[in-house]
Amino acid sequence: MDSWVGHEVPRLPGRSGALRLFDSARQAVHPTDPPGPATMYVCGITPYDATHLGHAATMITFDLVQRMWRDAGHQVRYVQNVTDIDDPLLERAARDGEDWKVLAMRETALFREDMEALRIIPPAHYVGAVESIPDIAEKVLVLLKDGAAYRLDDGTGDVYFDISAAPRFGYESNLSRDEMLKIFPERGGDPDRAGKRDPLDPLLWRGARADEPSWPGGDLGPGRPGWHIECAVIALGLLGSTIDVQGGGNDLLFPHHECSAAHAERLTGAAPFAAHYVHAGMIGLDGEKMSKSRGNLVFVSRLRADQVDPMAVRLALLSGHYRADRSWTEDLLAAAQQRLDRWRRAAAAPAGPSGETFLAGVRDRLTDDLDSPGALRLADEWAERTLAANAGDRRADPALQRLAQHSADTGTGSADDPAAPALFADTLDALLGIRL
Ligand code: 5CA
Ligand code: ZN
């Protein structure tokens, strides 16, 4: 399906070094090391209730990955999916008496608009589950023939993956079997389904039901795909048997990414499927988990309708580290708007402290597991020094006076580089996606 429209990204002088990211499988920060083009697959929306701030935060996280790779000189091959057929989508459409296809189209269109407003660089391939069904069915058949999958004998036509065919099962999430058994049913799994070989075996293909949409599956019989195989097949088809980053929110650590990896590794024989499994923290509202059932979702489109600057939304989400579960609050947004105003005033100054030093500092922070709070602090410092040095009424403001004196004393903040404000703005635009 169509992706969204991107913006031009300013070119910066020099290059950043290797991007280091926390890998959930190895439980440590390791450098990403793409041999050539860098490859990334990010789990996209199931198109209902989009785009809430949790979705936005996760998309911004992987947007930074793409930006840092590009800045390091890599070509980036980025694929994102849309789960445009799955139980939650059908349930929502039924609840609201709506055609599920229309719901999916509308929510996907809104998501694209929100991504553009937030200046997320579009993926090279934006792929729906529905358009991938022939490929998925083919791969499920391969798993069946290979003995890694089995069909239930209850006449439903449902096909499950046999996790005993994945000897490393559990390596990605590092969970004990007890923990897996607890989480599995909370995240779409069906441990109690009669006839399964293992309660944790995930669904690969759901045989057609009279009241549900279904597609021809060739020798598989009619039905629709399971969730984890969808992402495995889309990623393998467009990116090859192994990828540099598999991304999503930390709600996908298990079972989704564990099962996707197990499917992909069984299909290709190459392991690990992803060199880095990267997970963004969950965004909550005022200290509570943002969830549909609590009805406390905050939507990007709602904020845009209220004339909130999307750059302030982006900045507010970047003010916390991507891996931390964190809360959205009104105060966070207000602080981001003030920060943005300050940076805009500073970028309009005739000169400022070294732009090269600022750029090097931001590169240093972001290559260190995307330390965006650290990068934002550097921008604050640069802006404060610039405003202090350029303030006409410096004497009227003791704080600015002290800053100017400090800059002069230490020699760190000589604010006489006329090219610095432009490089400050370009750095924020290119690396953080914040356009002043
Ligand atoms: N379609 C599947 C992935 S294949 C899915 O999880 N869809 S979703 O609409 O529920 O979420 C879309 C993306 O946003 C996923 O990467 C998910 O992990 C992430 N996400 C969902 N809720 C939040 C949240 N509250 N905070 C941060 N990220 C979230
Ligand atoms: Zn996925």
TrEMBL record:
Q: What GO terms describe the biological role, i.e. biological process, of this protein?
A: cysteinyl-tRNA aminoacylation; mycothiol biosynthetic process
Provide the catalytic activity annotation: 1D-myo-inositol 2-amino-2-deoxy-alpha-D-glucopyranoside + L-cysteine + ATP = 1D-myo-inositol 2-(L-cysteinylamino)-2-deoxy-alpha-D-glucopyranoside + AMP + diphosphate + H(+)
Q: Where does L-cysteinyl-5'-AMP bind?
A: 43-46, 58, 81-83, 227, 249-251, 283
What GO CC annotations are associated with the protein?
cytosol
Which residues are Zn(2+)-binding?
43, 231, 256
The record's GO molecular-function terms, alphabetically, read:
ATP binding; cysteine-glucosaminylinositol ligase activity; cysteine-tRNA ligase activity; zinc ion binding
Taxonomic superkingdom: Bacteria
Q: Name one Pfam family in it.
A: tRNA-synt_1e
| This protein's UniProt keywords | ATP-binding, Ligase, Metal-binding, Nucleotide-binding, Zinc
Sequence motif 'HIGH' region, location on chain: 45-55
* Claim: Nucleotide-binding is one of the keywords in the record: yes
Q: What does this protein do?
A: Catalyzes the ATP-dependent condensation of GlcN-Ins and L-cysteine to form L-Cys-GlcN-Ins.
| Binding partners and assembly | Monomer.
Q: What is this protein called?
A: L-cysteine:1D-myo-inositol 2-amino-2-deoxy-alpha-D-glucopyranoside ligase
* Protein source organism: Micromonospora zingiberis
Q: Which gene encodes it?
A: mshC
